[in-house]
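Field: sequence (string)
Field: structure_tokens (string)

Example rows 1 and 2, in order.
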Amino acid sequence: MSRTTYQSSWMNEELQLFRKTVRQFVQDEFVPHQALWREQHGPDPDAWTTSGKAGLLLPDVPEEYGGGGGTFAHETVVIEELAKAGVSFGSGVQSIVGHYILAFGTEEQKREWLPKMCSGELVAAIAMTEPGAGSDLAGVKTSARREGDEYIINGSKTFITNGRRANLVCVAVKTNPAAAGFHGMSLIVVETKRVSGYSTGSAFDKVGMNGLDTCEMFFSDVRVPVANLLGSEGKGFSQMVQQLPYERLSIGVSAVAMSEQAVAITAKYVKERIAFGKPLLDFQNTRFKLAECKTEVQIGRVFLDHCIERFIASQLDAVTAAMAKYWLTECQCRVVDVCVQLHGGYGYMAEYPIARMWTDSRVQRIYGGTNEIMKEMIGYSL
């Protein structure tokens, strides 16, 4: 029986060399420290600067702003290699914030913040979710009242990735609290080391993704220069709508990468694990289950590659991005769950990578907009 190796249509020789570099860096610099990162609920501080030097941060930002000068394909490679290595690292959030600044920032803002984000000197977070407003962004209560040349920010945010380490936070606020729904919302960048009244809570003890720094943020009369407004006042929601496909596609990338890795390590395990005198792979149920998983993941990979191509060509619409985020993360959870089952009792042991994949996968259906919200978006397009 012949075996064919699928290669993504967007992959080329330069990206293959980049992947080799990223993979080696992740294995040498990140993988050995994962137990510690999970214990301390976040990466070591120098992980940011070392990854910046290695070119892992904002690889798809133009070189003139300190980035790698690549496309989303380069960002995809970084996301995939982190996911396959089982590394939780907030570089994806760094890229998301970087693209908000790239899309809506002034030239001065771009030149001030982007090079430092690319080097890892600045660690970014995006603060949208609040205790009473998750996927329902219209419910945002954090306010920014203008007083002269400053905004005074009051409110709180929760479930913020990179929260404790962040020194550059893109905050969704109401600059016109009287405006209904999505109106009156703006994006303001807070340089946390330059303000008073800003604080963070302790790291959350999460079910999975424990290597990520996730916490609450509090703003009490935080004064920020008006110059830190991204784009125009009151345009925050439309800005988020424009940029959310980037985040949702990134989630889809990690979903497929982890699914592929789950199938690969499970296939290896069932070839080595002996039960009733023969390898688990010799049982028809094992082969059929893995065949189903491999097929689903392959379908997901082809759809993902289609989305990546469209995104690079600036043709990925919000509905298709929602489809990718919804279907690929649902597929991820199905596949990883089957792979846990095929590991038997060992699949429930935290020391096994498949167990960590299982707990890490679950949140994919929640953040970036819950999958229920994705279905609503798709439904509205019918």
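Row 2 begins here:
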Amino acid sequence: MELILWRHAEAEEGIPDSARELTDKGSKQARVMAEWLKSKLPKNTRIIVSPTKRTQQTAAALDDNFETVRTIGPGVSAKAILAAAGWPDAKGAVVVVGHQPTLGEVAAFLMSGEPVAYNIRKGAVWWFSNKKKGDVAEVVLHTSISPDML
């Protein structure tokens, strides 16, 4: 399984939190990262997205064929993200467009087994895979890249 964590791009301040839209910079971040992802994602990649406006706009830069999943909105647990994605047993690739600090907690858990807080920058992608060697599962971080690196 491939698990791609994509933090929403830069968003405006405001209330209600769920209605915050991407800034001009955020829209550019989303477009740049989406172009990079398009050339690398396997066919039939599943895209699951938090219901907030900013995550929906970020995901739409990649593809408008995505699932809105309420259980991956702001403030959920790392376990909720992994369950929604089907980690580690789902087939193929899953992109999760979500929020900090939860995405950072997912990354930390996958890399260390501890739910500590890693910082994932706005608009950045962390790409993991789960491979089995015999009876042993191996988590591999393929890349961690932010829009300003592209």
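free_text_note (row 2): The helical segments are 24-38, 53-60, 78-85, 102-112.
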